[in-house]
Structure formats: C-alpha cells, structure tokens
TrEMBL record:
<dbReference type="InterPro" id="IPR002052">
    <property type="entry name" value="DNA_methylase_N6_adenine_CS"/>
</dbReference>
<dbReference type="GO" id="GO:0032259">
    <property type="term" value="P:methylation"/>
</dbReference>
<comment type="similarity">
    <text>Belongs to the N(4)/N(6)-methyltransferase family.</text>
</comment>
<dbReference type="InterPro" id="IPR011639">
    <property type="entry name" value="MethylTrfase_TaqI-like_dom"/>
</dbReference>
<keyword id="KW-0949">S-adenosyl-L-methionine</keyword>
<dbReference type="GO" id="GO:0003676">
    <property type="term" value="F:nucleic acid binding"/>
</dbReference>
<dbReference type="Pfam" id="PF07669">
    <property type="entry name" value="Eco57I"/>
</dbReference>
<keyword id="KW-0808">Transferase</keyword>
<dbReference type="InterPro" id="IPR029063">
    <property type="entry name" value="SAM-dependent_MTases_sf"/>
</dbReference>
<feature type="domain" description="Type II methyltransferase M.TaqI-like">
    <location>
        <begin position="86"/>
        <end position="191"/>
    </location>
</feature>
<keyword id="KW-0489">Methyltransferase</keyword>
<dbReference type="GO" id="GO:0006304">
    <property type="term" value="P:DNA modification"/>
</dbReference>
<dbReference type="GO" id="GO:0009007">
    <property type="term" value="F:site-specific DNA-methyltransferase (adenine-specific) activity"/>
</dbReference>
<dbReference type="InterPro" id="IPR050953">
    <property type="entry name" value="N4_N6_ade-DNA_methylase"/>
</dbReference>
<protein>
    <recommendedName>
        <fullName>site-specific DNA-methyltransferase (adenine-specific)</fullName>
        <ecNumber>2.1.1.72</ecNumber>
    </recommendedName>
</protein>
Length: 453
C-alpha cells in the first residue's frame, strides 16, 4: 500500500499492550489489522497472548501489497489470516464490527493520489476534505467498524490534532459515543530517519470522557477535547494555555500577516549591495532580509538587496519600459524563463509572487517563519522587503506599534504560540499567519477597540 512505513517491533508490542490494558482478549473476540504490511502487530498480539496466557482473538490483516502479505503469511501466525484488499473500499464494511483495531496507517498526502482515488475518497469519506491524508480516512473507517466497547490504537503523525484539513476527523473523534482515551506523543526519531512527530492514539467506542495526554517532555495531564473541530493544540500541549481570551486578536489589529516574497530565482535577484551593477542602483533595488540574516543581525537591516522590477504601487512595467533592469535581466533570460511562474503565464522578468507594495513599504514587524523561541523585530523605515523565510505583519492605523511589539515578545504571547503553532523538527514551531491571526492580544492594543471607546 502507498505510504507504508515499517513499524519497529518494540513500538508494536507497546501499542498491543496498551490495546489490551483494560480489556484483554476473550474467546470469540475479533481483531483487525488495517494496512497490515508484514504483520508486526499480529506477531506482537501472539507474543502478548502467549506471555499473559490469554486466548488469541480471531484476526484479519488486510493490505494491497502482495509482497508484504507474503512476508506476513510466512510468519505462520495461529490467530490471523492475511487478505489482499483495500481497507478504504466499500466492501470492507461487509467484514462487520470488530473488538480491536491496531495499526500504523499509511501516510499519503493528496499529492500521492490519482484523480480517480481522490474522487472515490471524497465521495465516500467525510474526512476526505481539503488536502487530506489517507491516515485520516483510516481513522474514519476504523471508528465505523469498531464494536461498542471496542478499542482502536493507531500510530500516526500528530498533525491531525491541529491542521485545518483534519477538522472533520476531530469532530468524529469527539462524538458522544467515541472516547479518545490517550494520546501519547512519541520521540521524533521513533521511525529512524523520518521526522513524523508521531503519536499513539487510543480510542474506545463508548461515552466520551476526558483524554489522558502524554507529552514528549514526560509530562502528563487530562483534558476534555473540543468538539467543534477546532484545533486541539492548546488543550493537548498544555493545561495552562487557556484563559487568554480578551475579545481581540492579532488579526483585529493588523492589515496583513504574510510570508515574505519568493522570486523563484533568489540566486539572481538577491545580491550584496556592493555587488550591484551600477546601472541598477538605486532605482531597481530594494533592501531585503532572510530568516537567517534576521537572527544573525538581530534585526532586519542587512547588506543584501533585491533587484526589483516592481513600482511602488506594486505594478510591473511593460517590457519596453524596463530600461537598465531589462538589459540586466536579458543577460539571465534563460534562467528566468525556466521558472514555474513563467510556465503559469507570468512575465519572464517578474518575481514568482507579485509583491503587495502598499503593505510591504510600511512600518512593520518581522519574524522568522520557523523558530524555537519566537522573536519579533521592528522594521520602522518601511523600506526592507522580507524574503520568503521571513514573515511580516503590518499594524492597523491607531495600533500602538511599540506596545504591540513588546507584547509579541512577551511571555503570554510566547506561551500561546507554543501551545497553538504547528511543530517542526528539533523543538521548533511554525509561525503561520492563519494561526497567528487568532493570537489573543490586550484589547487596548486593538485600534478598532480604541476607536469604539
């Protein structure tokens, strides 16, 4: 099956132990191994039952990969048969309900699916929305097949806790008769070189209750997960990130929160100020900063510039009006034409993205797109054009600039960001604009609120 990632034996044994923790198998129980691969979970079940002197449940493993199934069958396990079929096909419903489901569903983003697969999944699954991943659909099918009182344990990426695409799954997992018992966040390297931020989610088909959360730092807490499909990040990551609601958000106080500009050819458009050809300065260049420079220089002032064909209103001159810029660009025309933005109809001398100059050329606050400890800097002159590894926000008129900057660099905002932002490798977080717009801020920092007063 697409997206198969082998499960380490130790992890399979740990998950099986958790599956049977409060409900060891009885005679006549049924267990299902979706996307079973080479059968590591089925083998772990037999080892568990033999060690604890429990009867084997009646097991079925399903997969679409014949080679994996051959390996699973060669294990000669007593309790399980292995069948070649698609777990997400309609006829899987005919298997009936089961008492246990355990596995490592495939991780396949929508880019890995063909058009027929996308059409079929969107027609058959409520969780197949937006840029869905197959493991979301495996959750939905498994909850559907789970007997009342039955238990499900999956190891998946933790992203379903907070990405927008997984909102339907979060709603499904917080239904009145679905109880998420535990979410255990595993070490990042549990799958060797793959950085997946994995977690083991254990679900029981019974009345909803509080969920036990185990975090990577070893701390634990219990929480009642939201039911409306909104992000679980704050309630999962910390028990003290609530209580910040103020009635105003960063989105209320800003004109724009956006990533910086992507040219599609930074090696050409970005250069040191001392290396700029004389005919381009000063009319065709603008100061710029990257994420790395922002940290190294402790601010947005650098010696780097962007060769910029755009006017201050964001318009792009006709080719006949390019003058010295056109002469310089013509020397690099082959490289500039070899960009996806040109294939999509943009002029060969344009940037990959059209710059919103009205916002870029204002006093703004800049910050890195990925950070271990979020940090915000003032760009007061309104001259620096951030590149794509730098985000920027433009406060509305009437919003006190320095006070907003101080708040963003303060402990309350940092705690909220650590609780709500998407995780990246090695303890870093992603400061995405769609998340930051929801950051609560003191109402006195919001220009709209001040005007109302």
């Amino acid at each position: 099956m697409k997206g198969h990632v082998p499960t380490p034996d130790g992890l399979a044994e740990e998950m099986v132990g958790r599956l049977f923790d409060d409900a060891p198998p009885q005679e006549g129980d049924r267990i299902l191994y979706p996307g079973c691969g080479t059968g590591p979970f089925a083998a772990a079940v037999e080892r568990f039952c033999e060690a604890e002197n429990h009867p084997f449940p009646s097991g079925v493993g399903v997969d679409t990969d014949p080679q994996h199934l051959d390996v699973a069958r060669n294990r000669e396990l007593e309790h399980a048969r292995f069948e070649r079929c698609d777990y997400l096909a309609d006829d899987m419903i005919d298997i009936g309900t089961v008492d246990y489901i355990v596995g490592n569903p495939p991780y396949v983003p929508i880019e890995g699916l063909d058009e027929e697969e996308k059409r079929r999944y969107k027609a058959g699954f409520s969780t197949a929305v937006g840029r869905f991943d197959l493991y979301l659909l495996f959750f939905e099918r498994s909850v559907e097949l789970l007997e009342q009182g039955g238990v499900l344990s999956f190891v998946t990426p933790e992203k379903f806790e907070y990405v927008d695409t997984a909102a339907p799954l979060r709603q499904l997992l917080s239904a009145a008769d679905v109880h998420v018992e535990t979410i255990d966040h595993l070490d990042e390297d549990v799958f060797d070189d793959l950085v997946t931020f994995p977690c083991v989610t254990t679900v029981r088909r019974r009345q909803r209750d509080e969920t036990r959360i185990l975090l990577r730092d070893g701390s634990t807490h219990t929480t009642l997960l939201p039911q409306d499909g909104e992000s679980w990040a704050a309630t999962v990551r910390t028990s003290d990130a609530g209580g910040m609601e103020t009635g105003a958000t960063l989105g209320d106080a800003t004109v724009r929160i956006s990533a910086g500009m992507a040219t599609g050819a930074d090696a050409l458009f970005v250069m040191n100020r001392d290396d700029v050809p004389p005919q381009l300065a000063p009319d065709w260049i603008r100061p710029t900063v990257s994420g790395r420079q922002l940290t190294a220089n402790d601010g947005p002032q650098t010696d780097s510039v962007l060769v910029c064909p755009y006017r201050t209103d964001g318009s792009l001159p006709d080719e006949s009006e390019l003058g010295a810029f056109g002469q310089w660009a013509e020397l690099h025309r082959d490289r500039l034409e070899d960009r996806s933005c040109v294939d999509n109809g943009k002029p060969w001398y344009s940037w990959h993205e059209t710059p919103p100059m009205d916002d870029l050329l204002q006093s703004k606050i800049v910050f890195k797109d990925i950070a271990k400890r979020p940090r915000f800097w003032a760009e007061n002159d309104g001259t620096v054009v951030p590149r794509h590894s730098v985000y920027y926000l433009v406060p509305k008129s009437g919003v006190p600039f320095d006070e907003l900057l101080d708040y963003l660099n303060g402990p309350d905002a940092r705690r909220w960001m650590n609780a709500h932002c998407q995780k990246a490798a090695n303890g870093f977080i992603r400061l995405q604009s769609r998340v930051l717009r929801d950051l609560p801020i003191p109402r006195e920092l919001c220009g709209t609120y001040q005007e109302t007063l």
